[in-house]
Design brief:
heterodimer, A: alpha/beta, 11 helices, 10 strands, globular, B: alpha/beta, Transcription Regulator spoIIAA, 2 domains, four-stranded mixed beta sheet, 4 strands
Chain lengths: ~270, ~375
């Protein structure tokens, strides 16, 4: 079983690309959304992905996850081309990534505990005691109290839903975590705590995080690297300082606009 | 020892050396759990414990959690295990696990027992009836306001609904009622023939279709087709707070959402009933001709004698009342949907079941009424 041994050499190659998107074209009807796009995500980093509204950030995420069909190009995850995988290999691979959807996407008829245990029950044969312990550990890891375990998603606040959904996406201890606008809809304190949480989890569990976000604070505080999408391509990638130095008009407006200045002045 | 691959224990003078090995990850969590529990059970009261993790290749939350369980089982007996050989990258994870599990888990969500549910349901029936009456009142009041201020009536919305519940229902209504007409005629002829009374099939079909079956079949179809759609639409609008949005903008949701839908049904159902009844008679006529040898002119002649305007009116008068019942039940159930997908499903089911039940009850009441006034 190579899936079990392939991750042992992780520390040796620091810049190993864990997700590699090459020459991707995605469109709906006549509209081309992603136009020959290339992007690498390296193991152990938190990549912030920014772009115009409706510019295809979510489309790229959904293409990597296989929810949107692509017209050409390749997506490699853990060095495996997703198109070449058999159904079994594919589902083995899908157990190694976790996804936090924008609205949480918790199953509304299951309690939070059942939501977290859902992927565990499907994939592993664990005793009820261990299932419960795992669920409570995940709940505690994302900073929730134990009593949310028996609540239904409709009984939770927006921030709690995000945290519970994060707990579910972490259920199988994934190596890659996809976050779709994790801090949208949270108050600044909640958003700050959530950023902090993602940083802590990333360090504790050694995660690679692919984060679609609009939150300038998140970009400044937690992202190791930022990639910017415009006109269907990645127009720039690098650290926040690299992005600030870019001359592209959209990037200048994004990183030097009034809100960006406010974030920076707050930092000094 | 079956689980030697993950944990091996060396015991000397009541001092234990526990060596972990391999991958302590989710894939092996079931084996690891058994190994951990076995070890803790077999060596319950050691004098000292040393846990060596240097041969553990990989570890995740599952492994760390079970390691913590092993440690705590000995800590409970007063022995502090010494840990060595832990890879630095797992240090944070292990420390994190050490802090966890201080809280008490909440009691499990209770499921109602049968008797308890029976009690609740019984109480709910009364509450349902009150809610329905309440909603009838709210609808009538909203319609009254619309009558007073005709400009506030949402004519476009009603025409849109009329298109969806009326026009687009025509093909399926024609098909179903046509088939029902055919079956009635065939069964009638088959059974009446034994008494040489085939011709009476025309009387039977005429009266049955115009008085009862036409309107009943159409009402049941519409309850399933449009009533469920109303409930699902309003229910998902409630889930996404669209109904609350209307309310805070100063609109009455009943006036904006319910009145156009209700009026559309009240207009559409009599029209569909008429179309359905005609289609049924056509089906009966064709079967009578092909299967019973009753030619169309004989059929029509006989039909003229068998039915009068009263038979037709009885069916048509019932239609708008059934429409109002279906509409009110469907909209009420829609506006009672809670936050979950399950609730939406439950209310849509309830909407269709209640609407059909009430339509049939209403048909019975009408039958007694018409009998009393000799119609």
């Amino acid at each position: 079983m190579d899936a079990r041994t392939s991750t042992t050499a992780e520390a040796t190659n620091h810049r190993e690309a864990i997700i590699s998107v090459h020459d991707i074209v995605v469109g709906f009807g006549d509209r081309v959304i992603l136009n020959h796009l290339d992007l690498d995500v390296y193991r152990g980093e938190i990549l912030g992905f920014v772009g115009t509204s409706g510019g295809g950030k979510s489309v790229l995420t959904r293409t990597i996850l296989g929810l949107v069909p692509k017209q050409s190009g390749t997506v490699e995850v853990f060095g495996q081309n997703l198109d070449d995988l058999s159904e079994r290999e594919r589902s083995a691979l899908e157990r190694r990534w976790g996804v936090l959807f924008q609205q949480g996407a918790l199953f509304s008829s299951l309690t939070v505990k059942q939501n977290i245990q859902f992927p565990l029950r499907e994939n592993l044969h664990l005793s009820q005691r261990l299932l419960d312990e795992i669920a409570y550990t995940k709940i505690e890891m994302v900073g929730l109290k134990y009593d949310v375990a028996e609540k239904l998603p409709s009984e939770l606040s927006g921030g709690m839903i995000k945290r519970a959904a994060l707990a579910r996406s972490l259920a199988l201890d994934p190596e890659i975590l996809f976050l779709d606008e994790p801090t949208s809809g949270l108050d600044p304190i909640g958003a700050g705590e959530f950023d902090e949480l993602i940083r802590t989890l990333q360090q504790t569990l050694g995660l690679t995080v692919f984060m679609v976000t609009h939150d300038l604070d998140s970009l400044h505080t937690v992202c190791d690297r930022i990639a910017a999408l415009a006109d269907g391509k990645v127009i720039a990638q690098g650290t926040i300082e690299d992005m600030m130095a870019q001359q592209h008009p959209w990037l200048r407006a994004y990183f030097h606009g009034t809100r960006a200045r406010a974030v920076q002045s707050g930092r000094r | 020892m079956p689980h030697a691959s993950l944990i091996s224990v060396h015991s000397q003078d009541d001092r234990l050396t526990v060596a972990g090995r391999g991958a302590w990850t989710s894939e092996y969590a079931d084996e690891l759990e058994q190994a951990v529990d076995n070890t803790a059970h077999t060596y319950a009261h050691p004098k000292g414990v040393e846990i060596d993790l240097s041969a553990v290749e990989r570890m995740d939350t599952f492994g760390a959690l079970l390691f913590e369980r092993l440690k705590r089982s000995w800590k409970g007996t007063g022995v502090e295990p010494q840990v060595k050989g832990l890879a630095p990258r797992y240090k944070v994870l292990i420390e994190e696990m050490g802090r966890m599990g201080q809280e008490q888990p909440p009691p499990a969500r209770r499921h109602e027992a049968i008797l308890e549910r029976f009690g609740h349901e019984t109480v709910n029936v009364a509450a349902d009836a009150a809610a329905l009456l309440n909603f009838v009142g709210a609808s009538v009041a909203a319609m009254g306001r619309v009558l007073l201020r005709p400009r506030s009536f949402r004519f476009t919305a009603m025409v849109n609904q009329l298109d969806r519940v009326g026009l687009r229902a025509v093909p399926i209504i024609i098909l179903i009622t046509f088939l029902i007409g055919c079956i009635l005629a065939q069964q009638g002829i088959f059974n009446f023939r034994r008494f040489g009374a085939d011709i009476y099939v025309v009387d039977m079909v005429g009266v049955l279709v115009l008085r009862e079956l036409g309107v009943l079949i159409v009402a049941i179809m519409i309850a399933g087709r449009s009533g469920s759609a109303y409930t699902a639409e309003l229910g998902s609008m409630r889930m996404r707070e669209e109904v609350d949005a209307l309310r805070v903008m100063g609109f009455d949701p009943v006036e904006v959402l319910v009145v156009p839908r209700l009026l559309a049904l009240i207009i559409a159902l009599p029209l569909l009933t008429f179309i359905g009844s005609m289609s049924s008679l056509l089906g009966a006529g064709l079967v009578s001709w092909g299967y019973g040898g009753i030619t169309p002119d004989v059929f029509l002649d006989r039909l003229k004698g068998a039915i009068d305007m009263d038979q037709f009116n009885v069916g048509m008068i019932k239609a708008p009342f059934m429409a109002a019942t279906i509409g009110i039940v469907a909209c009420l159930e829609g506006l009672r949907v809670g936050g979950s997908a399950e609730s939406l499903g439950a209310h849509t089911t309830a909407s269709v079941v209640k609407a059909i039940f009430l339509v049939i009850v209403m048909d019975g009441v009408f039958a007694m009424f018409f009998a009393a006034i000799d119609m």
